[in-house]
Specification:
The model is unreliable at 1-6, 200-211 and 342-354 (pLDDT under 50). The chain contains eleven helices and seven strands. It has helices spanning 13-16, 32-45, 61-65, 90-105, 114-125, 130-144, 159-196, 210-232, 248-263, 285-304, 322-337, and strands at 21-25, 50-54, 83-87, 151-155, 238-244, 268-276, 310-314. Strand 5, helix 9 and strand 6 form a beta-alpha-beta unit. With 354 residues, the chain is α/β, with parallel strands linked by helices. The chain has a single domain, classed as Rossmann fold, CATH 3.40.50. Helix 4 runs antiparallel to helix 5 (114-125), helix 4 packs across helix 6 (130-144) and helix 6 (130-144) packs across helix 8 (210-232).
Length: 354
């Protein structure tokens, strides 16, 4: 079996924890929720006020920690660990989002328009992209509250969903700007019409008090989207950490995702290679093929993603759950992140004809 030397820069956990926002993502099933939970625990143990947020519809943080994750009640009940865990549920977030829209619109529409408004909100509830827009709104609110925490770790949805969320702040900012301009044009038109008609006590020219009230929610949302887009591109504040297993499909998806984030100017902080088989696996007939496949993928990682700081996490037969399991994983990650004092043996390609 061939040997090769790991040449990629080690992932610096100290530098990672200096950011305000850490986005942990990757293909579904590679262990990113466990990695995100472990990083959040490690940060909290360092004395950082930490919030762990799951945006993945398939939540499992409650199972990993063994506690309920319900907003402010999501404090992990472990002595000496200042960590909160929150799971964002798309259904409830969408309900809250539409209710906020409803409350904003009602004061500014006539009674005969309230029925059509309720119908439109009902249709919006089931329209494509509605949950995604509500989730973005919730994420931007959390990003705005970043000063309340030393670190917010996001356990994100699978990569494709995450890339969509990364691009939405700019799209929504453009949409809000256009809508504001339309409302301002309408306001100026109404102002001109009002000057052509006799003024009454109930309808003063320009109706200057009503316009700001209508525009205020849009202005607030526009500013929040713009802030989120700026923060996500700031490498001192934000880092995106990819998790992948040494398999071909996760490699292909990670490679595409890194390129896509780079095109959006979102900083990629590093890569976690999870579930690496030990060298002894080559001696087990049942595992030999998988071991060599892992080696082939790791060779491609070394060729194609060597610019990313990395750590490798060995395969574990233990269940990573609760304080003991996460602490075990934290110890493994801390050891993996230490600079190697000597060459590290890793799975590699078998020589031709072997």
């Amino acid at each position: 079996m061939a040997e090769r030397v790991a040449v990629a820069q080690k992932l610096d956990l100290d530098a990672l924890f200096k950011r305000r926002l850490l986005m942990v993502g990757g293909k579904g099933g590679v262990g990113k929720s466990t990695i995100a939970a472990t990083l959040a625990l490690m940060a909290a143990q360092r004395g950082l006020k930490t919030l762990l947020v799951s945006t993945d519809p398939a939540h499992n943080l409650a199972d990993i920690f063994g506690c309920q994750c319900d907003g402010d009640k999501g404090r992990v009940p472990w002595q000496g660990v200042g960590l909160r865990v929150q799971e964002i549920h798309p259904d409830s977030v969408l309900d809250d989002y539409l209710e906020s829209v409803r409350k904003q619109m009602l004061p500014h529409i006539s009674l005969n328009m309230r029925g059509p408004l309720e119908k439109q909100l009902h249709l919006t509830r089931h329209s494509p992209g509605a949950e995604e827009a509500a989730l973005l709104d919730a994420l931007t609110r959390l990003i705005k509250q970043r000063e309340d925490y030393d670190l917010i770790v996001f356990d994100t949805a699978p990569t494709g969903h995450t890339l969509r969320l990364m691009s939405l702040p700019g799209v929504m900012n453009t949409w809000a700007t256009g809508l504001l301009q339309q409302k301002q044009h309408v306001g100026r038109f109404r102002d001109i019409l009002s000057r052509l008609e006799p003024a009454t006590d109930d309808a003063q020219p320009g109706n200057s008090d009503a316009a700001p009230a209508v525009l205020a929610p849009l202005l607030e949302r526009q500013a929040r989207f713009r802030d989120a887009a700026t923060v996500l591109k700031d490498s001192e504040l934000t880092g995106f950490l990819f998790v992948m297993t040494p398999e071909l499909l996760p490699l292909q998806e990670t490679r595409r995702a890194v390129a896509a984030l780079d095109s959006h100017q979102v900083p990629v902080a590093g890569l976690v290679l999870n579930r690496i088989l030990p060298a002894e696996a080559e001696q087990v007939p049942f595992l030999r093929g998988v071991y060599r496949q892992q080696g082939a993928v790791l060779s491609q990682v070394a060729e194609q993603l060597s610019a990313l700081p990395q750590i490798q996490i060995p395969m574990s037969g233990d269940v990573i759950q609760g304080r003991e399991g996460l602490q075990q994983m934290a110890d493994v990650m801390a050891a993996a992140a230490k600079p190697a004092a000597h060459k590290q043996k890793m799975p590699g390609r078998a020589p031709a004809g072997h």
